[in-house]
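--- STAGE predict ---
source: upstream dedup step, 1 unique chain passed
mode: sequence only
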Amino acid sequence: MFILRPSELLQKHLVKLRVQGKTIGFVPTMGALHPGHLSLVEYAQKQNDIVVASIFVNPTQFNDLNDFKLYPRSAEQDIYLLEKAGCDILFLPSTKDIYPAGTSQLPHYELDYLETILEGKYRPGHFQGVCQVVHRLMTLVAPENLYLGQKDYQQCLVLKRLLSLTGSPAQIKICPTLRENDGLAMSSRNMRLMPEERNLATGIYKALTFINEQLQPGTLAAIKEDAVRILCKYHLKPDYVEIADADTLQLLSSWDGCKKIVAVIAAFMGQVRLIDNMILPLNFASYAN
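--- STAGE serialize ---
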């Protein structure tokens, strides 16, 4: 595996590969890797000649400075895992590589409705930061395919919007969420949970499972209220429990029994904020593309 740090070196290396006709799949990460990240590398390997991964903890997408400082970092372990997984190139940019002109006058992206709800509402500025870093990374890597995890569902839709806005020809590939044996979605933030908190955090998956089991055509208020009660039973403090159109993320007050929908949850376990989702009904769940 090549480990490349200056952006100029990365681009020179990629030019040589493109001259050879190689296709490139890209897996952007913030490190603290787990099997969910590595599954993205595996998907990329199957569909491309070369897999590029990046590790960069992006300061502009953290609306809470303390959250940025506490975000887990494990560079040596990450390098080992990516090499073992067969990643071809690891890009380790500096902040100067990503933001050569600084962060005071970065572009603003017209994300419309997606920036006003759910993560956009509870983490103001977050998706602008995500778009800023991904736009820069996509410019540097210029892959044929971009691999994202379904766990960050709203972010996947935001990045689809970004690629449309910027005219990128890359295809987004959304890959299924990997879960622990007890259902907890794999996440770098799980590393910050104490053992008892880790066990209680499964309440998010239990609430999603409850929504799936109880879902029927009609109004959705009661089922969301019951899901909130499940979260509270597990000492989770919810930011939101919502059901939305799976394609547009428009929030729904009722369901017609036919439309593909997604249940989305964000909740705090102690000081750690966790998110998860489930595409419903489950016969629609094979969402990876």
